[in-house]
User: Which sequence fits this backbone?
């Protein structure tokens, strides 16, 4: 009976955690508190002009930004305004990525208005109340500190593509590294937020037994009393790297929040997101391109997807694809459908954007090695 009760309890907790994570990711923008700090209204032409939007392939995921917006709401910022400034709305998929530089800029503006030089740590303290989104639930329901870090390292791309995490065993010391993608900017607020969140949550989840040995940041700044209070360890800035040291023995500390069954189930969900991320993006591009076969341009398809032409080009390059290759594939598929339906060459050429039937015939032969059967 006790075993059956445990299974039921685990299933209920999984459902609750999953529901909470989905709610945070999808509906944080619906919160409208009494008093909010405002965000700048986005320029509708900015996507084609502002280079901050060009980093989407190396940016932050909407699955992170929605719960981050809810977190900002606890600090008297407007979560809906934050998402709106990033042009994230109800239709934006959780696996979409937006410019990390744009997010950095918005957070820096808020930090300046608040007069908070340690805003990344302020965010981390607010986030210590509960895990941030599906990724956070998966990590902090793990059995030990080691399990939590292993999951964070393996699935970090779910929240960001502009950096990776690595865990290095140096014997008595283990180092958590954050490696930045070359030539991709990363602001100090979210860098400090990452390490501060880990330090605070690990300390709380081990009843105060977890301790950081040292912290090093690549960015330059003067340490504040908040840094000393959060990390309780030596801190170095302008160190040329972002890394956190801990005693290797600390990896085996059990977490009081542990629910390995639920965490494993959440891991399966997160793994499915990472496995289907590429397919989801390519499928969205294919659908948008299919609607513009008569006049396919990066600008037109980008508008359909809600991103700039430059961002679309870079994301396609990241997937080792080109717009021309996608257009040719879709035109060939549509041509076969129209040919099977008995459509005349002139009609097919017009629908697919060719100037005349002979141009369509030459293209079809290039695609298939044979002339179309008209």
Assistant:
């Amino acid at each position: 009976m006790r075993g059956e009760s445990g299974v039921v309890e685990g299933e209920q907790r999984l459902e609750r955690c999953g529901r909470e994570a989905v709610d945070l990711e999808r509906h944080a923008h619906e919160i409208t508190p009494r008093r909010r700090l405002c965000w700048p209204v986005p320029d509708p032409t900015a996507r084609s002009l502002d280079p901050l939007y060009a980093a989407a392939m190396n940016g932050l995921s909407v699955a992170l930004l929605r719960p981050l917006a809810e977190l900002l709401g606890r600090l008297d910022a407007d979560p809906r305004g934050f998402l709106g400034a990033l042009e994230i709305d109800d239709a934006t998929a959780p696996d979409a990525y937006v410019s990390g530089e744009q997010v950095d800029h918005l957070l820096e503006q808020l930090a300046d208005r608040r007069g908070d030089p340690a805003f990344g740590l302020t965010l981390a303290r607010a986030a210590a109340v509960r895990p941030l989104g599906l990724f956070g639930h998966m990590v902090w329901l793990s059995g030990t500190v080691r399990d939590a870090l292993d999951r964070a390292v393996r699935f970090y791309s779910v929240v960001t593509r502009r950096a990776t995490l690595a865990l290095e065993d140096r014997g008595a010391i283990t180092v958590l590294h954050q490696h930045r993608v070359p030539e991709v900017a990363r602001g100090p607020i979210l860098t400090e937020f990452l390490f501060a969140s880990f330090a605070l949550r690990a300390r709380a989840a081990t009843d105060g037994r977890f301790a950081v040995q040292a912290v090093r940041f690549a960015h330059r700044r003067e340490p504040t009393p908040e840094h000393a209070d959060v990390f309780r360890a030596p801190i170095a800035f302008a160190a040329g790297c972002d890394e956190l040291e801990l005693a290797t023995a600390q990896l085996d500390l059990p977490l009081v929040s542990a629910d390995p069954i639920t965490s494993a189930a959440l891991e399966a969900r997160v793994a499915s997101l990472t496995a289907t991320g590429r397919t989801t993006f390519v499928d969205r591009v294919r659908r948008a391109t299919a609607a513009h076969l008569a006049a396919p341009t990066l600008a037109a398809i980008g508008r359909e997807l809600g991103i700039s032409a430059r961002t679309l080009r870079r994301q396609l390059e990241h997937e080792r694809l080109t717009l021309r290759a996608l257009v040719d594939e879709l035109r060939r598929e549509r041509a076969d459908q129209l040919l099977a339906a008995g459509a005349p060459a002139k009609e097919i050429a017009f629908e697919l954007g060719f100037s005349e039937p002979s141009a369509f015939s030459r293209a079809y032969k290039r695609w298939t090695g044979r002339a179309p059967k008209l």
About this structure: The chain has two domains: 2-269, 276-368. Residues 260-290 form the longest helix (31 residues).
